[in-house]
Amino acid sequence: MTPRDLGTARGVVVKVGSSLIQAGDTVIAAIARDIMTLREAGTRVTLVSSGAVALGRDRLGLATGTLSLEQKQAAAATGQPRLLDLWERAFAVHGVATAQALLTLDVTESRRSWLNARATLSTLLDLGALPVVNENDTIATDEIRYGDNDRLAARVAQLTGADLLVLLSDVDALYNAEPRSDASARALRDIPAINEDIRAMAGDANSARGVGTGGMRTKILAAELAGASGCATAIGLGTADKPILSFSRPDHGSWFHPARSSASARERWISGVLSPNGALHIDAGAVRALLDGKSLLPVGVTAVEGQFDRGETVRILGPDAQLVARGVTAYGAEEARKLAGCQSDETEDRLGYRRAAALVHTDDIVRVSSPEAGQ
Ligand code: GLU
To answer: What residue ranges define each of the domains in the chain, with the CATH number in brackets?
Structure first.
């Protein structure tokens, strides 16, 4: 899409932070109006809404203090139907049905459930409904949690093939210094690429800003994740008069350009898997072959790290352990260990059977463009 030209976006994911849900009906109504304008222009919009825990803790009288994991999960269970009701009422006045989709990390990390979730969201959009996504906080435990809705929203952007991710919260922009204490601090409006300087700003001057789980760090991570799939990210104040449409003004919020222009649906999934289970270390010759567009053959593999099954995404690392690519393996970790370093015609001798000649077929490989991308 053209930067800051919302009319050119085909798909948009709007993420609404908890502080906005607590800010009241006027804020929600303004967000709903902007979403309606996008929809009327033909844009497919998916909402990712936080606020289940915040609404639930109020309802359960747990309003002050830190919550235990169990209390948070109970609060999420109590707050989620109220959260949906809030959006249902906001969109009922526009004649639009809302639909709830609760996701867990394993849904987006396994290819099969990813395809299912994608089909459901796409059908809802085809039917004119507005999907409202949240993490399934009530059952997700720490190991299987996204933990913050910024990265969840980036995964939903990949899932729906969106070209714009809008992160609305109580944070108005990314600043180069802490604006409350430094008079020279200025907001960065246009961020062509996320480099070390930008990451440092997120961890430093901006880290304490905002009341949500994420803060600026997870917003930058979300922008990186989305950007790797060709999706732009806009960060801005959800309490603004026109919280989404205002991004068409160059002086509103921060706009992150995607790292690449587009990606196929399969590439989007491979490059977005949040925590690949293992890694294949490969030699310099295999790196060259890979960057040349070839498949990864067992002969180029020097070591196999971690546990993974056939069909899972692994990192592919060069001789200095630099990330070269990500790919879906044709063999599980134990098989890959037996095959490492062997010629393709030895496969059957080593395993007792032969499946594919390549450990990772070229169609299942996403090469990384910058060394730190997709780590
Ligand atoms: N899923 C959480 C909720 O709905 C919010 C997570 C976040 O703040 O990013 O309450």
So the answer is: 6-261 (3.40.1160.10), 272-373 (2.30.130.10)
